[in-house]
Amino acid sequence: MDKPLLPTEDASESSPYVNAIFAVLGFAYLFPYYAMVQPVDYWRLLFPNSNVEVVISLAYTITTVTTLLLLVCAGGVLRYTRRIVSGLAAQVLVLGALPAIALLAQLSARYLAVLFSTVVIAIATSFLDSSVFGLATLFPHGALEHVQLGIGLSGLFAAIFRVVSKSCFPPSMVQTSTTVYFAAGAVVVAGAFIAYILLLRLPITRRCMHTTKQTAFEMRLLRKIWRNEGLVMLAYATSFIVFPGAISAIPSFQFPWLNDSAWWQLILLTVFAAMDVVGRYSAQYRCGLTARSVWRVVALRLLLVPLIICSTKGVWLTHDAISILLVVLMAFSNGYCGTLTVVLVNDCVNASELSATGMFSSLSINLGLVLGAAIGFGLSHLLHF
Question: Structural domain tally of the chain?
Fold first, then answer.
Protein backbone atom coordinates (compact mmCIF):
# COMPACT_ATOMS: atom_id res chain seq x y z
CA MET A 1 0.00 0.00 0.00
CA ASP A 2 1.27 3.49 -0.85
CA LYS A 3 2.23 5.73 1.99
CA PRO A 4 0.08 8.81 2.53
CA LEU A 5 1.48 12.03 1.09
CA LEU A 6 0.42 14.07 4.09
CA PRO A 7 0.80 13.51 7.83
CA THR A 8 -2.07 11.93 9.73
CA GLU A 9 -1.60 13.09 13.28
CA ASP A 10 -4.24 12.28 15.82
CA ALA A 11 -6.71 15.09 16.43
CA SER A 12 -6.07 15.00 20.16
CA GLU A 13 -2.41 15.93 19.71
CA SER A 14 -0.74 19.11 18.58
CA SER A 15 0.55 18.73 15.02
CA PRO A 16 3.62 20.71 13.88
CA TYR A 17 2.46 20.29 10.28
CA VAL A 18 -0.98 21.74 11.00
CA ASN A 19 0.54 24.50 13.10
CA ALA A 20 2.84 25.42 10.21
CA ILE A 21 -0.11 25.67 7.83
CA PHE A 22 -2.00 27.93 10.22
CA ALA A 23 1.12 30.06 10.56
CA VAL A 24 1.16 30.41 6.75
CA LEU A 25 -2.52 31.41 6.73
CA GLY A 26 -1.93 33.95 9.49
CA PHE A 27 1.12 35.22 7.62
CA ALA A 28 -0.69 35.66 4.31
CA TYR A 29 -4.07 37.13 5.15
CA LEU A 30 -2.76 40.17 7.07
CA PHE A 31 0.23 40.81 4.81
CA PRO A 32 -1.69 43.20 2.49
CA TYR A 33 -2.36 45.59 5.37
CA TYR A 34 1.28 45.60 6.44
CA ALA A 35 2.31 46.02 2.80
CA MET A 36 0.21 49.17 2.57
CA VAL A 37 1.56 50.89 5.69
CA GLN A 38 5.24 49.98 5.28
CA PRO A 39 6.30 52.01 2.17
CA VAL A 40 6.38 55.36 3.99
CA ASP A 41 8.67 56.93 1.38
CA TYR A 42 6.31 55.90 -1.45
CA TRP A 43 3.24 57.43 0.17
CA ARG A 44 5.13 60.61 0.96
CA LEU A 45 6.16 60.82 -2.69
CA LEU A 46 2.54 60.52 -3.82
CA PHE A 47 1.11 62.60 -0.94
CA PRO A 48 3.85 65.03 0.16
CA ASN A 49 1.66 67.04 2.52
CA SER A 50 -0.17 64.33 4.47
CA ASN A 51 0.54 61.34 6.72
CA VAL A 52 -1.43 58.91 4.57
CA GLU A 53 -0.34 55.89 6.68
CA VAL A 54 -2.65 57.13 9.44
CA VAL A 55 -5.53 57.50 6.97
CA ILE A 56 -4.92 53.98 5.63
CA SER A 57 -4.87 52.57 9.16
CA LEU A 58 -8.08 54.35 10.14
CA ALA A 59 -9.98 53.48 6.94
CA TYR A 60 -8.83 49.86 7.20
CA THR A 61 -9.88 49.37 10.79
CA ILE A 62 -13.26 51.11 10.44
CA THR A 63 -14.14 48.98 7.40
CA THR A 64 -12.90 45.80 9.05
CA VAL A 65 -14.93 46.37 12.21
CA THR A 66 -18.06 47.24 10.25
CA THR A 67 -17.74 44.09 8.15
CA LEU A 68 -17.08 41.87 11.16
CA LEU A 69 -20.08 43.32 12.99
CA LEU A 70 -22.26 42.45 10.01
CA LEU A 71 -20.81 38.94 9.91
CA VAL A 72 -21.45 38.44 13.64
CA CYS A 73 -25.01 39.78 13.34
CA ALA A 74 -25.66 37.50 10.35
CA GLY A 75 -24.88 34.51 12.58
CA GLY A 76 -24.96 30.97 11.31
CA VAL A 77 -22.21 28.39 11.01
CA LEU A 78 -19.09 29.60 9.21
CA ARG A 79 -18.49 28.51 5.60
CA TYR A 80 -14.74 28.45 5.86
CA THR A 81 -13.71 27.53 2.32
CA ARG A 82 -15.94 30.07 0.59
CA ARG A 83 -14.76 32.93 2.81
CA ILE A 84 -11.08 32.04 2.77
CA VAL A 85 -10.82 31.51 -0.99
CA SER A 86 -12.78 34.65 -1.94
CA GLY A 87 -10.89 36.75 0.60
CA LEU A 88 -7.47 35.66 -0.65
CA ALA A 89 -8.50 36.24 -4.28
CA ALA A 90 -9.61 39.81 -3.55
CA GLN A 91 -6.37 40.58 -1.74
CA VAL A 92 -4.23 39.31 -4.62
CA LEU A 93 -6.14 41.45 -7.13
CA VAL A 94 -5.80 44.63 -5.07
CA LEU A 95 -2.09 44.16 -4.37
CA GLY A 96 -1.50 43.62 -8.07
CA ALA A 97 -3.37 46.82 -8.93
CA LEU A 98 -1.85 49.12 -6.28
CA PRO A 99 1.15 50.28 -8.39
CA ALA A 100 -1.28 51.81 -10.89
CA ILE A 101 -2.18 54.50 -8.33
CA ALA A 102 1.05 56.34 -9.16
CA LEU A 103 -0.15 56.74 -12.76
CA LEU A 104 -3.05 58.96 -11.67
CA ALA A 105 -2.22 62.62 -12.25
CA GLN A 106 -4.65 64.25 -9.83
CA LEU A 107 -3.93 64.09 -6.11
CA SER A 108 -7.62 63.64 -5.27
CA ALA A 109 -7.86 60.67 -7.64
CA ARG A 110 -4.85 59.04 -5.99
CA TYR A 111 -6.37 59.61 -2.58
CA LEU A 112 -9.67 58.01 -3.58
CA ALA A 113 -7.85 55.08 -5.18
CA VAL A 114 -5.87 54.45 -1.99
CA LEU A 115 -9.04 54.60 0.10
CA PHE A 116 -10.89 52.25 -2.26
CA SER A 117 -8.01 49.76 -2.24
CA THR A 118 -7.86 49.94 1.55
CA VAL A 119 -11.59 49.29 1.87
CA VAL A 120 -11.51 46.27 -0.45
CA ILE A 121 -8.53 44.77 1.37
CA ALA A 122 -10.25 45.42 4.71
CA ILE A 123 -13.45 43.64 3.65
CA ALA A 124 -11.49 40.68 2.32
CA THR A 125 -9.39 40.54 5.48
CA SER A 126 -12.55 40.56 7.62
CA PHE A 127 -13.82 37.41 5.93
CA LEU A 128 -10.40 35.80 6.31
CA ASP A 129 -9.91 36.99 9.87
CA SER A 130 -13.15 35.56 11.23
CA SER A 131 -12.76 32.32 9.27
CA VAL A 132 -9.11 31.60 10.10
CA PHE A 133 -9.59 32.38 13.80
CA GLY A 134 -12.81 30.36 13.95
CA LEU A 135 -11.22 27.41 12.17
CA ALA A 136 -8.06 27.49 14.30
CA THR A 137 -10.05 27.25 17.53
CA LEU A 138 -11.41 23.87 16.41
CA PHE A 139 -7.91 22.38 16.24
CA PRO A 140 -5.69 21.16 19.09
CA HIS A 141 -3.67 23.51 21.26
CA GLY A 142 -1.12 25.41 19.19
CA ALA A 143 -3.10 26.21 16.04
CA LEU A 144 -4.43 29.55 17.29
CA GLU A 145 -1.04 30.54 18.68
CA HIS A 146 0.54 29.84 15.29
CA VAL A 147 -2.04 32.00 13.52
CA GLN A 148 -0.92 34.83 15.78
CA LEU A 149 2.74 33.97 15.18
CA GLY A 150 2.13 34.03 11.43
CA ILE A 151 0.54 37.46 11.72
CA GLY A 152 3.63 38.73 13.50
CA LEU A 153 5.96 37.15 10.93
CA SER A 154 3.90 38.82 8.23
CA GLY A 155 4.61 42.25 9.69
CA LEU A 156 8.30 41.42 10.04
CA PHE A 157 8.58 40.10 6.49
CA ALA A 158 6.77 43.16 5.14
CA ALA A 159 9.21 45.43 6.95
CA ILE A 160 12.35 43.50 5.95
CA PHE A 161 11.30 43.10 2.34
CA ARG A 162 10.55 46.82 2.12
CA VAL A 163 14.07 47.54 3.36
CA VAL A 164 15.50 45.10 0.79
CA SER A 165 13.42 46.47 -2.09
CA LYS A 166 14.41 50.02 -1.15
CA SER A 167 18.10 49.07 -0.95
CA CYS A 168 18.15 47.41 -4.36
CA PHE A 169 17.08 50.55 -6.19
CA PRO A 170 18.46 54.11 -6.19
CA PRO A 171 16.46 56.80 -4.34
CA SER A 172 15.07 58.09 -7.64
CA MET A 173 13.32 54.74 -8.30
CA VAL A 174 10.97 54.65 -5.31
CA GLN A 175 7.99 53.80 -7.54
CA THR A 176 9.83 50.88 -9.14
CA SER A 177 10.96 49.43 -5.81
CA THR A 178 7.43 49.74 -4.43
CA THR A 179 5.94 48.05 -7.50
CA VAL A 180 8.26 45.08 -6.91
CA TYR A 181 7.25 45.15 -3.25
CA PHE A 182 3.50 45.00 -3.98
CA ALA A 183 3.98 42.29 -6.63
CA ALA A 184 5.90 40.12 -4.17
CA GLY A 185 3.08 40.63 -1.68
CA ALA A 186 0.54 39.36 -4.21
CA VAL A 187 2.64 36.22 -4.73
CA VAL A 188 2.85 35.65 -0.96
CA VAL A 189 -0.92 35.87 -0.53
CA ALA A 190 -1.51 33.60 -3.53
CA GLY A 191 0.69 31.00 -1.84
CA ALA A 192 -1.85 30.74 0.97
CA PHE A 193 -4.23 28.99 -1.46
CA ILE A 194 -1.84 26.05 -1.58
CA ALA A 195 -1.54 25.99 2.21
CA TYR A 196 -5.32 25.91 2.65
CA ILE A 197 -5.74 23.11 0.09
CA LEU A 198 -3.12 21.07 1.96
CA LEU A 199 -4.98 21.70 5.22
CA LEU A 200 -8.28 20.48 3.74
CA ARG A 201 -6.63 17.22 2.63
CA LEU A 202 -5.54 16.29 6.15
CA PRO A 203 -7.63 13.71 8.06
CA ILE A 204 -7.25 15.81 11.22
CA THR A 205 -9.02 18.68 9.45
CA ARG A 206 -12.02 16.55 8.59
CA ARG A 207 -12.23 15.26 12.14
CA CYS A 208 -11.96 18.70 13.73
CA MET A 209 -14.46 20.33 11.36
CA HIS A 210 -17.06 17.58 11.50
CA THR A 211 -16.81 16.12 15.00
CA THR A 212 -16.75 19.45 16.88
CA LYS A 213 -20.27 20.81 16.99
CA GLN A 214 -20.26 24.49 16.11
CA THR A 215 -22.73 26.97 17.55
CA ALA A 216 -23.63 30.38 16.20
CA PHE A 217 -22.76 33.41 18.29
CA GLU A 218 -25.32 34.16 21.04
CA MET A 219 -25.59 36.82 23.74
CA ARG A 220 -25.31 34.04 26.31
CA LEU A 221 -21.76 33.45 25.14
CA LEU A 222 -20.94 37.15 25.33
CA ARG A 223 -21.80 37.17 29.03
CA LYS A 224 -19.08 34.57 29.59
CA ILE A 225 -16.30 36.23 27.65
CA TRP A 226 -16.92 40.00 27.61
CA ARG A 227 -14.27 40.82 30.23
CA ASN A 228 -11.52 38.95 28.44
CA GLU A 229 -12.63 40.20 25.04
CA GLY A 230 -12.40 43.70 26.49
CA LEU A 231 -8.77 43.01 27.39
CA VAL A 232 -8.13 41.82 23.84
CA MET A 233 -9.56 45.09 22.55
CA LEU A 234 -7.53 47.19 25.01
CA ALA A 235 -4.28 45.37 24.18
CA TYR A 236 -4.60 46.13 20.48
CA ALA A 237 -5.98 49.65 20.96
CA THR A 238 -2.93 50.57 23.03
CA SER A 239 -0.60 49.55 20.21
CA PHE A 240 -2.49 51.24 17.40
CA ILE A 241 -2.63 54.57 19.16
CA VAL A 242 1.06 54.90 18.25
CA PHE A 243 1.51 52.40 15.40
CA PRO A 244 2.19 53.17 12.66
CA GLY A 245 1.57 56.95 12.84
CA ALA A 246 3.44 58.14 15.94
CA ILE A 247 6.22 55.56 15.63
CA SER A 248 6.86 56.41 11.96
CA ALA A 249 6.99 60.10 12.96
CA ILE A 250 9.75 59.66 15.58
CA PRO A 251 12.80 61.54 14.26
CA SER A 252 16.40 60.47 14.56
CA PHE A 253 18.08 62.86 16.98
CA GLN A 254 21.67 61.65 16.49
CA PHE A 255 21.55 60.98 12.72
CA PRO A 256 19.31 63.63 11.07
CA TRP A 257 20.25 62.50 7.55
CA LEU A 258 18.29 59.29 8.16
CA ASN A 259 15.10 61.37 8.41
CA ASP A 260 15.40 62.88 4.93
CA SER A 261 15.92 59.48 3.29
CA ALA A 262 13.11 57.86 5.37
CA TRP A 263 15.55 55.16 6.51
CA TRP A 264 14.99 55.93 10.18
CA GLN A 265 11.25 55.34 9.85
CA LEU A 266 11.89 52.01 8.14
CA ILE A 267 14.34 51.03 10.87
CA LEU A 268 11.79 51.72 13.60
CA LEU A 269 9.01 49.87 11.77
CA THR A 270 11.33 46.90 11.21
CA VAL A 271 12.34 46.84 14.88
CA PHE A 272 8.65 46.92 15.82
CA ALA A 273 7.85 44.02 13.49
CA ALA A 274 10.78 41.93 14.75
CA MET A 275 10.00 42.38 18.44
CA ASP A 276 6.31 41.77 17.79
CA VAL A 277 7.23 38.32 16.47
CA VAL A 278 9.41 37.65 19.51
CA GLY A 279 6.50 38.60 21.75
CA ARG A 280 4.06 36.36 19.90
CA TYR A 281 6.45 33.42 20.10
CA SER A 282 7.00 34.07 23.81
CA ALA A 283 3.26 33.87 24.47
CA GLN A 284 3.58 30.09 24.80
CA TYR A 285 5.13 30.87 28.19
CA ARG A 286 2.26 32.20 30.28
CA CYS A 287 4.45 33.10 33.28
CA GLY A 288 1.61 32.29 35.67
CA LEU A 289 -0.87 34.57 33.88
CA THR A 290 -4.45 33.36 33.63
CA ALA A 291 -7.71 34.66 32.21
CA ARG A 292 -8.25 36.41 35.56
CA SER A 293 -4.81 37.98 35.98
CA VAL A 294 -3.70 38.96 32.46
CA TRP A 295 -5.30 42.40 32.89
CA ARG A 296 -2.28 43.51 34.89
CA VAL A 297 0.19 43.42 32.00
CA VAL A 298 -2.41 44.81 29.59
CA ALA A 299 -2.95 47.83 31.84
CA LEU A 300 0.76 48.34 32.53
CA ARG A 301 1.67 48.85 28.87
CA LEU A 302 -0.62 51.89 28.67
CA LEU A 303 2.29 53.82 30.21
CA LEU A 304 4.24 53.41 26.96
CA VAL A 305 1.82 55.57 24.96
CA PRO A 306 2.71 59.00 26.46
CA LEU A 307 6.40 58.08 26.46
CA ILE A 308 6.38 57.30 22.73
CA ILE A 309 4.48 60.52 21.99
CA CYS A 310 7.11 62.46 23.95
CA SER A 311 9.78 60.87 21.77
CA THR A 312 7.81 61.74 18.63
CA LYS A 313 7.55 65.39 19.65
CA GLY A 314 11.14 65.60 20.91
CA VAL A 315 10.08 66.34 24.48
CA TRP A 316 12.48 65.06 27.18
CA LEU A 317 13.18 61.74 25.45
CA THR A 318 15.55 62.96 22.74
CA HIS A 319 17.94 60.09 22.17
CA ASP A 320 17.76 57.42 19.47
CA ALA A 321 18.53 54.66 21.97
CA ILE A 322 15.51 55.67 24.05
CA SER A 323 13.31 55.76 20.94
CA ILE A 324 14.38 52.24 19.97
CA LEU A 325 13.89 50.97 23.54
CA LEU A 326 10.33 52.33 23.63
CA VAL A 327 9.53 50.75 20.27
CA VAL A 328 10.99 47.43 21.45
CA LEU A 329 8.88 47.46 24.62
CA MET A 330 5.69 48.41 22.79
CA ALA A 331 6.24 45.82 20.06
CA PHE A 332 7.17 42.93 22.37
CA SER A 333 4.24 43.62 24.68
CA ASN A 334 1.92 43.90 21.68
CA GLY A 335 2.90 40.45 20.45
CA TYR A 336 2.87 38.87 23.90
CA CYS A 337 -0.28 40.46 25.33
CA GLY A 338 -2.16 40.38 22.04
CA THR A 339 -1.60 36.66 21.58
CA LEU A 340 -2.04 35.65 25.21
CA THR A 341 -5.30 37.55 25.73
CA VAL A 342 -6.83 35.89 22.66
CA VAL A 343 -5.71 32.40 23.71
CA LEU A 344 -6.94 32.85 27.29
CA VAL A 345 -10.46 33.71 26.09
CA ASN A 346 -10.81 30.09 24.98
CA ASP A 347 -10.25 28.96 28.57
CA CYS A 348 -13.60 30.54 29.45
CA VAL A 349 -15.77 28.49 27.05
CA ASN A 350 -16.56 24.88 26.19
CA ALA A 351 -15.70 23.05 22.96
CA SER A 352 -18.98 23.77 21.16
CA GLU A 353 -18.47 27.51 21.67
CA LEU A 354 -14.90 27.72 20.38
CA SER A 355 -15.69 28.63 16.77
CA ALA A 356 -18.08 31.44 17.73
CA THR A 357 -15.57 32.63 20.33
CA GLY A 358 -12.82 32.75 17.71
CA MET A 359 -15.01 34.88 15.47
CA PHE A 360 -15.79 37.29 18.32
CA SER A 361 -12.10 37.45 19.26
CA SER A 362 -11.43 38.55 15.70
CA LEU A 363 -14.03 41.29 16.15
CA SER A 364 -12.51 42.34 19.49
CA ILE A 365 -9.07 42.64 17.91
CA ASN A 366 -10.40 44.87 15.18
CA LEU A 367 -12.48 46.94 17.58
CA GLY A 368 -9.23 47.57 19.41
CA LEU A 369 -7.53 48.49 16.15
CA VAL A 370 -10.20 51.00 15.16
CA LEU A 371 -10.29 52.52 18.64
CA GLY A 372 -6.52 52.87 18.71
CA ALA A 373 -6.35 54.17 15.14
CA ALA A 374 -9.07 56.74 15.84
CA ILE A 375 -7.27 58.01 18.93
CA GLY A 376 -3.97 58.01 17.04
CA PHE A 377 -5.56 59.92 14.16
CA GLY A 378 -6.91 62.53 16.57
CA LEU A 379 -3.58 62.87 18.35
CA SER A 380 -1.70 63.26 15.06
CA HIS A 381 -3.86 66.25 14.18
CA LEU A 382 -3.89 67.69 17.68
CA LEU A 383 -0.13 67.39 18.21
CA HIS A 384 0.86 67.78 14.53
CA PHE A 385 3.02 64.72 13.92
Answer: 1
